[in-house]
Amino acid sequence: MKTLKKLLGVALAAAMVMALAACGGGGNSTPSGSGNSGGASGKPVKAMLYTNVMSLDTNLATDGDSFEVIADCIDGLTQMDADGAAVPAIAESWDIENDGTLYTFHLRDDANWSNGTPVTANDFVFAWQRGVLGNEEYGYMFSDIGQIKNAQAIMDGTADVTTLGVTAKDDKTLVVELEVPVSYFESLMYFPTFYPINQEFYEGLEEGTYGTSPDTYLSNGAFVLTDYLPGTASLSLKKNDGYYDAAKVSLSGIEYQVVGSSDNALSAFKNGSLDIVMVNGDQVSAAETDAATKDNIKVTGAGYMWYLSFSQTANNANGYLANANLRLAITNALDREALVDNYVKDGSLATYTCVPPQFAASSTTGEDFSADQTRFADVCSFDAAKAQDYLKKAQEELGVNDFKFTIIYGNNEGDEVAKVAQAIQQQIQDTLPGVTIELSNMTKAERLDKMQNDNYEIALTRWGPDYADPMTYLGMWITNNANNYGFWSNAEYDQLIADCTTGAYVTDYDARWNAMYDAETLVMNEAVIAPLYTKANANIIASNVTGVEFHPVALNRVYKNCIVQ
User: Fold this and answer.
1) Is 269 a member of any domain?
2) Residue 58 φ then ψ, to 5°
3) What residues are paired with 368 via a beta bridge?
4) What's the rounded Cα separation, in Å, for the pair 69 and 224?
5) What is the per-residue pLDDT for 339?
6) Residue 335 burial (CB < 10 Å; 0-12/13-18/19+)?
C-alpha cells in the first residue's frame, strides 16, 4: 500500500502539471504528430469498464465510462494530447479576440462523419443549442463554466436559443462568444458535452433513440460503434477508416467488458480475456505478489473524489441533516485512512478538502490547490471527541437524541464500494452514540435518480474533474445548480463563485484563486459534503499493450495511440 501511494503521488503530480499546461495552451498550435503510423494492427484492445454505459448521447451522459466511449468515437474542437494539453482536433486552428471573449475556430476540411457527410460548424451550433435547451445535468457547463453568451438566460427561459453565443459563419468557421474570459476554455472543448451532433442525422431518427445503437450513432473520431445496447455488459468499436487521422490509429478496435468485481477482473486478465483491468482491495496485494501480474501494475490517478452527500431538505430525514453540527459530527467520525488502507487498497488518497488534491495547480505559483490536506483540520478530521461534541450541539439544537439515517450506494460501481459503505456505517455508529445507519444498495442509475429527485438521506457518491480547475468541484454547490444534490444554499458562497466566474476576479488570477479558497472554506465549515478519498486506479496492463494515455481530468483513458503487439 505504501508503495502504491508513493507511485500515485508521483503520477498525480505529473498529471497535475500536464493539466496546468492544458489550461494555458496556445490557440494556433498544430497537431504534435505523435502516434503510430500505418494501418490497423489486426488486433483490438480488450478493456474493462467499471459500470454499464447508459447513454452515448453527449447531452445526456453523466459518467466517466460513458464519456470515455463517446470520446473514442467523436472528436471535439480540441482533444487531449498525452500530456493533457488541448491540441487541435476538428478545429485545426483558432483565433482569440476581444480580451478572450471571442473565439473563431477554423474547422478541418477533411473531417467527416461516418456516413460520409462533412463535419460542419452547424453541427456544433445544433449540439450546443440542444444541450442548453435540454438543461440536463451538464447544462451548467455551457453557462456557469463555459460562460457561453446567453446560455444562462436561455436556460432560465428569458432568451431564445437562437441568441446563444455560437454561430456558423460558414461551413468551416465557428464563432463562439463568451460572457467573460475563461482561462481554461480550450480544455473545455475536449469534454464530450461540447462535441458536435449531425443535425440531419439526428432529426431523421425516432425521438429518444439517438446514441442507443450503432445504427443511431455517427462517429467523426478514431473509432465507430459496432455493438451496443444501453446498459449491457459489453460493447465494441472498430477503427474508423474514414477518420482524418486514421494513419495514426493502429488498433483494429476496442472491446469493452463491464466487470464489477476485482476477483473477476484479475481472473479475466490472467486468462487473457481482458488486456486492461482495474483492481482494488485484496486483489491489489494478490496482483503484486503474483508472478503473472506483478510487473504489469500501473497506478494512475482516476481523478474522482468519493464523498458523502447529505440531503438538507425537509423532504428527507425530518430535515435533520440541514443541521450543520449534525453533518460536522458525521464527517469527524470518519476514519478516512482506514477506508483507503483496509478496504480500497489501490493507492487512493484519504481526502479532507472538498476539492481533491493533485489535479489543479496555480498558473502563477504552480501550487496544488489542495496540497495542504490539513487546511480544514478543525472541521474535517477523524476525531471522536470532536464528533461527539458536534453531535451534542445538534441534539440540543434539534431537541432530538437519537437519529436514524439510510446511506444509499451503487452496487455496480466497484466491489470496494459496498465494503466502504459498511465501514462508514460501523465508524459512525461506533463513534456517535444515538446515531443508527442503515444501508441500501442499488444500481448507480437508481442512486443518481434518487439524488436528482431528492429522494434520499445520505448518499455515497463520487465526482470527477471535467477540467483542470477547482471550479469543476466548487461550481456544484451554487444555489440551484443541477448537481447540488444536497440543496444547500449560501448567498455569500454564490457571490464568491460569481466573482470568480463573471465578476471582479475573472481577469485577476491570484485574487480568483484566493476567492476559491474562501468559497471552499464555507463548504467545509458547514460540512456540505463529507469528503472521503481521491480515487486511484491500480491498472493491470498486458505486456503487449502500449500507448494508452491515462488522465485524471475529463477523459481517464484515451486509446487513439494504443498498440497491441
Assistant:
1) no
2) -60, -25
3) 361
4) 10
5) 98
6) buried
Query: What whole-number distance in Å separates Cα of residue 29 and Cα of residue 544?
Result: 33
Instruction: Say whether pLDDT at 110 is over 90.
Output: yes
Query: What is the CATH number for 477?
Result: 3.10.105.10
CB 396 within 8 A of CB 405: no
CB-side neighbour CA atoms (13 Å) of 64: 24
| Count of C-beta atoms within a 10 Å radius of residue 138 | 23
d(CA 152, CA 106): 26
Q: Where in the sequence is the domain holding 433, given as residue range(s)?
A: 301-536
The confidence score (pLDDT) of residue 4 equals: 52
Q: Across the chain, how many H-helices and E-strands are there?
A: 16, 21
> Would residue 65 count as lying in a domain?
no
List the end-to-end C-alpha distance of the chain, in Å, as a whole number: 31
Rounded Cα gap, residues 321 and 74, in angstroms: 42
Statement: residue 135 has pLDDT above 80:
no
The pLDDT, as a whole number, for residue 359 is 85
Backbone φ and ψ for 108, nearest 5 degrees, come out as -65, 145
Mean pLDDT, range 381-391, rounded to an integer: 98
Residue 212 lies in a domain: no
Model's pTM, two decimal places?
0.82
Which of 84, 74, 41, 4 lies closest to 545, judged by CA? Answer: 41
For the record, the C-alpha cell of 218 comes out as 455517427
Mean pLDDT of the chain: 91
The Cα–Cα gap between 306 and 142 comes to 25
The pLDDT, as a whole number, for residue 17 is 40
Tell me the pLDDT tens digit for each residue of 464-476: 998 889 999 999 9
According to the model, what pLDDT value does residue 320 have? 98
